Amino acid sequence: MKKLVSVLLALALCLSMTAVFAEDAVRIGVMGPFTGPAAAYGAAVRDAAIIAAEEINALGGLQIVLDTQDDEHNTEKAVNAYNTLKDNNVQLILGTTTTAPCIAVSVYAAEDRILMLTPSASSPDVLESDDNTVFQVCFTDPAQGTLSAQYIAQHGLATKVGVIYNNGDPYSTGIYETFMEEAAAEGLQVVAESTFTDADTDFSVQVASMKNAGAELVFLPIYYTPAAMIMNAAKSADYAPVFFGVDGMDGILTLEGFDTALAENVYLLTPFAADADDERTQSFVTKYTEAYGIVPNQFAADAYDGLYILYTACVNAGITAETSAAEACEKVMAQLLEMEYVGLTGTMTWNEDGTVSKTPKAVVIKDGVYVSAD
Amino acid sequence: MAQFLEALVNGISLGSLYAIIALGYSMVYGIAKMLNFAHGDVIMVGGFAVFILMVSNGWQPLLAVIAAMFICTVLGMLIERLAYKPLRGAPSLAVLITAIGVSYFLQNAAQLLWGANPKFFTILDYGNLTVHIGDSQFNISIGKLLSVAVSVAIMVGLSLFTGKTRIGKSMRAVSEDRGAAQLMGINVNATIAITFAIGSALAAVAGAMLVGVYGVQLSPTTGAMPGIKAFTAAVFGGIGSIPGAMIGGILIGLIEILVGTFVSTDLKDALTFAVLIVMLVAKPTGLLGKPMREKV
Predict the structure, then answer these.
(1) Of A41, A71, A73, A205, which to mutate for an interface test with B (greatest number of B Cβ within 10 Å)?
(2) Are B44 and B33 in contact (CB under 8 A)?
(3) For A307-332, how does the pLDDT look when each residue is reduced to its tens digit (9 = 90+)?
(4) Which positions in chain A touch B119 (Cβ < 8 Å)?
(5) Angle (nearest 5°) at CA B161 between B102 and B50
(6) Between 1.10.20.10, 3.40.50.2300, 3.30.420.40, 3.90.226.10, what CATH number should domain A24-139+279-359 receive?
(7) Shortest CA distance to B158 belongs to which of B175, B171, B143?
(8) For a tag site, which of A103, A313, B68, B78 has the least CB within 10 Å?
């Protein structure tokens, strides 16, 4: 009896191993918040990666399988999700989507030598670990703050500017700091600054301070959920400045029950505009809209580019399903430093430290859709 | 001046919202002698009930709020029956831990049922009043004014209810001495169940106002922070006292908004709780709390 059991077990083991090797495809993990307050970002990243993977697999060359894990925009859950991916033997990771989980996971990834290409974790802190293995598709927070101040000044959107930021969030404070520096250099007058934390539910104080200081434009380097609450509070106070957001504002139009009329004329800095008329953008937007019923945002575009970047690097470096994660990491990294990739979000090159260089665009919300702000 | 008045109005309206929630905490504590930490989460369930009926099923806002009150009443009584009643004789620590457990259960059940994506809805959209004082002016949202009126009405109604009606009197009797009340022929279990029913119906109103009037996001953790602030308000005013909860709520709201406006938004929570500590050192039973002698 015992023998029979052990034979069966051995057989089962062989079968399971063949199951792994039969899948002759490069295994790429995708991480992001698919639930929770930042779910719009993670879902966009996952959905766009699925579209990119289908396209790549249809090409017939190198095949890709995706392994998607939810991190709920929570550092602990992100580390768990990362460990699950590691146990599942993924070779490369497209993720994480948001900054705080990325910082947490980057330390482990550097230790384990697993390459992470993050579509959207934009803080420079995600690149800080020793022997960093994280590369970014999006530009860094400091760049977003600087570019926002330049954009506002050069396009004459306002001279009196207010800022509301989340002082409990490295993403928000990071952008705030560089914005303030550049605003001073560009001659913008910052008339009011106000803060909040994730625990805050009342925004009447912050809005009143902007209004009483006479700010014509309010810069919001924050995520879209508190931004929606700020717009609600502004409405109660009969205050209608120009709101200017960065990539975290992307998602405001997808909030259930939120009156999108309040987001009318909101500017946001983003490398991607869904109304761009090049053929690749149009094809992606059409596919995404058909599959998920909404127009893809910048996170989706970054993730779509991200998967193609990994694919291109894998093909050039000759990565196969048998390549170990550590070997794939070194080879893909070498490729990233050499390559110039032209994607939906611009022409990208990478530095040694993992930062990308590309030019930003601004979009403005008109009639509930993004339109390129010229 | 206008800035001060605007802050004052915002503080009172935020405070009146805390007051409605605090009333729920305070009544349950006064009568059942337990801290119902799941109260904040009943607010969240009320918010979701309104969202589902109003946004997804197209009900009238008022009708949706009334239905949500009914749903929360049933939920509150169910929680009391299943989680708290079996522990009636148990040490208060066991009941407290159970309440925290119920709180987590509700949050996670909500996440499972409705997902964690934040949602919004509007129940009152009557615009703003503009008030002119000399050269300056400020705006008051009519929704917020109405919410103050609603909470004052609720407080007056509850005071009358506990003061004049038969059930109200039995509530006060149970609150004063549970054993003696039982000996006098009062059905203690039924009285406590009714208390939970009223508290939960109030929670539904608070949930509807929090999201629908104040424009706060609706998510499984929506009730947590306002719940803690309102609990503070109940302690501040003297837990167990109905006017105390009202005054405590409004004071906490005012301190929060005034500190945020004139000192710093970074310090508003810290200073609010500092005031609470100073207050409790000076008067441990809260503003209107009666000193209770321990019966031996």
Answers:
(1) A205
(2) no
(3) 999 999 999 999 999 999 999 999 99
(4) 255-257
(5) 45
(6) 3.40.50.2300
(7) B171
(8) B78
How far is C-alpha A111 from the chain's CA centre? 23
For chain A positions 271-330, those within 8 Å of chain B (CB to CB) are none
Does the model's ipTM exceed the 0.90 cut?
no
Q: Could you tell me the pLDDT band of residue B176, with boundaries at 50, 70 and 90?
A: confident
Tell whether B128 is within 8 A of chain A (Cβ).
Answer: yes
- Each domain of chain A, given as residue ranges in start order, spans 24-139+279-359, 142-248
Task: Measure in Å the smallest separation between the Cα of A100 and chain B Cα atoms.
Answer: 18
Shortest Cα distance, chain A CAs vs residue B164, angstroms: 36
Q: Which residues of B touch A228 (CB under 8 A)?
A: 118, 120, 215, 217
CB–CB contact B3 A195 (8 Å): no
B262 touches chain A (CB under 8 A): no
- Distance, in Å, from the CA atom of B138 to the CA atom of B1, rounded to the nearest integer, reads 10
* pLDDT class of A5 with cuts at 50, 70, 90: low
Distance from CA of B291 to the nearest CA of A (A): 33
Angle between helices A99-112 and A75-87 (to 10 degrees): 40
Instruction: Note the residue count of chain B.
Output: 296
Domain A142-248 has CATH 3.30.200.20: no
CB contact under 8 A, A236 and B215: yes
Mean pLDDT of chain A: 88
pLDDT on residue A2:
64
pLDDT tens-digit readout, A82-114: 999 999 999 999 989 998 999 999 999 999 999
Cα A239 to Cα A241: distance, rounded to the nearest angstrom:
6
Average pLDDT over residues A144-158: 90
Cβ pair B232, B134 in contact under 8 A: no
A361 phi, psi to nearest 5 deg: -125, 165
